[in-house]
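Subject: Sanity check before I submit

Could someone independently write out the structure tokens for this chain? I want to compare against mine line by line before I put it in a report. The sequence has 147 residues.
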Amino acid sequence: MTELLHLACPRCHTVNRARREKLAAGLRGKCGKCGAPLFDGHPVALDAASFEPHAARSDIPLLVDFWAPWCGPCKVMAPQFEKAAGRLEPALRLAKVNTEEEQGLAARFGIQSIPTLLLLRDGQEIARRSGLMDAAGIEQWAAQSLR
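---
Independent answer below. Compare away.
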């Protein structure tokens, strides 16, 4: 029997259904509404309106980087987070939230320092880590947190 996953589109944030075995085989699928690939190896920029489809309505965990444009460590970690996205998808969705623009989301999750990584499953926080990390560290931390 085929297991269908619900996945939010990184472009239009519409929730789509995709077969788990096709994703596992490396097929990325396309959004039924806008035609964008469901995974493109890049973090998704989220705001308050687009956060819920990815956090609570998708069947895969969401790894969020809370950052700000003025933050030096955030700038250093950005390419590392990008590299990790290419390696962790489609097992995880990686996303970025600009805390300057999305202060409500930062407050909702009690973000007190940046960069902060938050790992969510079914809309619930399962792990948190603050501070600068390289791509390998992000990947290792995510894998350990999902066990």
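---
OP: Matches mine. For the report I'm noting this point. The two ends are 25 Å apart (CA to CA).
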